[in-house]
């Protein structure tokens, strides 16, 4: 029996994983679910339904002679995920990680939470309040308010290396490998997951910054306490169909974002305050130069 999954891109969030997913799904020897972020290992209610439920729900279509993968950026952050993956899939699979300058990643994450109606604090206050917010140990808070925590990469990467072995963990740097050298990165990825090299079109950028035209429609999609969303969730139709409908409405409701960018001195200050020591530890762990982040 073939392995159900050959590779997983575990993150990080806001580091170009959507672009990689959307490009790699056109490779004739790679199968990716139509729905990126087919959450399973990070959500207890889904994980408890078992592997067969996950595969039957998200992994439909022709998988013959293809390497099967999935992209779910939350998997890098949550501590129990590597062991859960090992428990269900074993250790004979490839782990892909993409890292981004942590202060810029934090700001991009913040803007996403704000656009979706989860965040009402200004950025600097949100950073200061993160510790107290995450003391309330809920998936919601950890998912939406972990601006600093997700950028402390050392422990997150080490967990995967410890479980799957350094040879099965491939780390890319967003600024170097996605922004500046995407074609070479795609070649490295194809080598890593062991598929024949295929020239892929990486010219289209995915998941570019946007904001809602209507906050009312946004809240219908993202506010879990909205009565209309709750009613829609109870309808006897597949989860994938519900997701497609919500995604279609959300895409129609988007317009280009006009967010203020972080100034270089703001990036420097946030990096020095929250991330400097962890960047140095990550450099040593991976034996790479991350001076581009400093």
Task: Give a structural overview.
The chain is of the alpha/beta class. It folds into two domains: 7-208 and 260-293, Rossmann fold (3-Layer(aba) Sandwich), CATH 3.40.50.300; 210-256, no CATH class. The chain has helices at residues 17-24, 44-47, 51-58, 81-89, 102-115, 123-135, 139-144, 153-164, 174-179, 182-192, 215-222, 227-234, 239-252, 264-286, and strands spanning 7-11, 30-31, 67-71, 94-99, 169-173, 210-212, 254-256. The strands form two sheets. A five-stranded parallel beta sheet has the order 2-3-1-4-5, with helices on both faces. A two-stranded antiparallel sheet has the order 6-7. Helix 8 (153-164) runs parallel beside helix 14 (264-286). The protein is globular, with a radius of gyration of 19 Å. The mean pLDDT is 89.
Secondary structure: elements and pairs:
Layout: E1 7-11, H1 17-24, E2 30-31, H2 44-47, H3 51-58, E3 67-71, H4 81-89, E4 94-99, H5 102-115, H6 123-135, H7 139-144, H8 153-164, E5 169-173, H9 174-179, H10 182-192, E6 210-212, H11 215-222, H12 227-234, H13 239-252, E7 254-256, H14 264-286
Parallel strand pairs: 1-3, 1-4, 2-3, 4-5
Antiparallel strand pairs: 6-7
Helix pairs in contact: 8-14
